[in-house]
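Reproducibility note. Readers wishing to regenerate the assembly model reported in the main text can use the exact inputs given here. Chain order matters: entities are listed in the order in which they were concatenated for prediction.
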Amino acid sequence: MSAADVQSAPGRTRRGALSRLFGLRETGVALALIALCVVLSLATESFLTQTNLLNVGRQVSLLGIMAVGMTFVLISGEVDLSIGSIYAFAGLATGMLIVGGWALLPALAAGLLCGAVIGAINGLLSTYGRLPSLIATLGMLSIVRGAALILTDGRPVTVNERLGADPDTLAAFEFMGQGRLFDVIPMQLVFFAAVAAVAWAVLAGTTFGFRVFAVGGSAKAARISGIRIEAVKIWAFTVMGTLAALAGILAMAFLPSGQAGRTGLGLELDVIAATIIGGASLAGGEGTILGTILGVLIIGVMRNGLVLMGVSPFVQELMIGLVIIVAVAIDKWSRRRGG
Amino acid sequence: MTDGDAILEVRGLTKRFPGVLALDDVSLAFRPGEVHAVIGENGAGKSTLMHVLGGDLSPDAGAVYLGGAPVRLAGPLDAQSRGIGVVYQELALCRNLTVAENVTMPTVAARGAVRPMPRAAMRDMTRRALARLGMGHVDPDTPVSRLSVAEMQMVEIARAIGRDVRVLVLDEPNSALSPRESEELFRVVRQLRGEGVCVLYVSHYLDEVLGLADRISVLRDGRHVETMNAADADEDRLIRAMVGRDLVGATPFALSPAAEASADAPAVLEVAGLACAPDVADVSFTLRAGEILGVGGLPDSGKDSLGDALFGLRPRSGSVRVDGREVGASSGAALRAGLAYIPADRRNGGMLSTMSVAHNVVASTLGAVSWAGILRRRAVERTARAQVARLDARISSLGQRIATLSGGNQQKIILSRGLVSDPRVLILHEPTRGVDVGAKAEIYAILRDVAAEGVGIVMITSEMTELVLQASRVVVVRAGRLSDELTGAAITEEAIMQRAVP
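Running the prediction on these inputs yields the following structure tokens for the assembly.
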């Protein structure tokens, strides 16, 4: 195709210039989000208010933190179904430690470590264990959920002073989940923004990020380039597990209670949906943090808008499903046209 | 252009893809009982033409005429029911099904779900089709997965000829066949021609086209350049027509023999007793700095596993030494020791296909373009730009995805990834597969430059001309072992063939 490709090169450059800021894929999602926001601003009084927008920001934060982790896993060519369980386990474990009188930082560290270890186990099973990650993490979904049930004996965990938490620790813990930075920005949103910023920098600007893309896009070529596929994937799962734990801990701090049989059930599907809407591919090698943020926002804004417009929650579920299909379909079709 | 005798004709065929005019007002006529070769560089439009004839693509303008009447091919099934059978380059058989199920698939599909085809009829039809191809010994109930590549190809042809084929299109049919298997294929092609079938034959191999075809049509940049009788053609004329210019001093077909590495050059790679399941049994050789060692052999000889084995991608036994030091059996160890590897399959081994040109160049040298794990954008760009310039790869920007480049430019980028780490030894497997003539010549020139700088090159290839003209020494793999080596004037196609065939 040599001659043909050279001829078509200017066309590509022009298209690149139009969407230099985002790249073609994010542009589509961004336009969809903007359109959604415009419609909601016109259709409702309350959408375009600071209170509501910050509220949306808080509501999507936990989903967003996990979606950032999922972006790593999907780009590396794997998938993680166990994150809802990690979310529950880490949140409950941290809550129990604080109730048990632990100081904040050790309790947080322990909770995050739980997530990291479970993530690493997912990674080991999916690489050296030679299991498809779909299967490995499906198993871990049940195992970790079961572990959380055993840990809590199936009883709700509530974090409060009466049950033994240190008052200062409790205040700090609750601030993480419920507080607002400068009394304005929800702390959850601050965590999400920080996680996203770091992840963006890692994915776009470090050798680790490079390797994640390489192993997902073409495993053999990555190996020939000296990249240790197993190590990269295990790290991607570890990042995912840690971020799922962080989200679970923040959820615990927000409520502040949880129950092993209920917390975070089915969350993995929302997270995968948001990440896919943002342009990550289940086949690996594709995805960006910016796209994932946009995907998370589309789901969040959509939910919020439907609530504001008084649409029944049943219809909301249906609409979310449609968005997933339409968003991914548009992406696939546009890419096929572009060759 | 009209041709009274034509069984199949295309007139004014135009097909546009985004950014590419794949077919530009192409008119061709194909007669019954002829072998009509269609040749051209990659991207000339051959494949698009075949897909249009197969009913797989519909043209933007122009039409297909069958027996003088215009037809609208609604799909592959429609084309086949009208007597046009197509065998595409990539094998397209259902490996989990039997030979009979594959051969009768179009017939079964045409009958629809309401009138299933009796098993006995399927076997019967298959047996007859196979017998016609001289493949009577294949049991229709054999699962396709148990057949050799050559047999699978015949099954594909059996499916394409169906009950009553008038035009058979073969798209690069022998790219995966050994010379002996190719001979068998040619025999079948000639036989079908004798039966009055029009065989459209798409190929890269000019010598084989000249030997087989009655007429030859040349496409270039989507346009029909000329159609000539094979008797009036020779390789030079075909190349000129394909390339549209003379390859000044760079034609791969007329290079001076590769320079001999001097005998006292140091050994860079010493391989002893290398074995690697399933088909490398016992390979030993020594490679000196600055030489190009050609490795030939038939498919299934073990040749195609040798690259992976040398680079440590698969478990192996035996010893691989670079500059006298033993190399561990992992790609990381191989890279550190100074080996670089360019595998045969670009899509699933060579390219980081979702990544940019620049990232593909630097993938094996991340340490040199990063600081504490942080990529230095400038260093990445500088390295990539230097390599792109060195190999004269045609790209529109460093950020362009490698998958959007032509085969030749992809290969140059992959080659640059191997070279960027200044390797001692470069292992190449099918270095010019799917690369057009112009880029081929450039790649050969690059390899010679690299060798002249003292790098040892192992070139594993199925292309005879590559072995004869590019290698300073040639060894041939048979049953997992190496033949004696050929040097200088002793490197001839005959000598290589003699050592390759069991």
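We highlight two features of this model. The CA atoms of residues 44 and 220 of chain B lie 5 Å apart. The radius of gyration of chain B is 24 Å.
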